[in-house]
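Predict structure. Chain length: 138.
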Amino acid sequence: MSASRFTLSLVLAASLLASCARRHNATIPTAKSAPVAAPAPVVASSAARDLTDVLTEELNLTGEQRRKVRAVFTNTAEQANAAQQRLSSNRPALMAELKRINAASDQELQTILTVTQYKQLKAKQRQVQAQMQARKAQ
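Prediction complete.
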């Protein structure tokens, strides 16, 4: 269950970022043989901004919702980055911590979004997860 929640969150993030990139006629960068690590706060804030932009459009977020959702995504990304650095050698502990972070993030989003918006978000997550599973099966 913990791996599936984490995977679902990552799948949603990847899908939303891909959607955002297509919307702006950009390409998603591919990994290079020698990746250059960007500082975590920069990555967290840009990912939070991109995800918030996509959700603002797809869920018709208000200005206040947009601000709060971005704060949740920024905090979630920063916590996940810190957990990965701290627990990289202990995969079970890392997965448990990521599950906890995602659950807290999900609870915060549920309080920010309307019931309809939250249902739309969950439907999108299920759709993205199904697409990823279909790709895996090929």
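Summary: The two ends are 23 Å apart (CA to CA).
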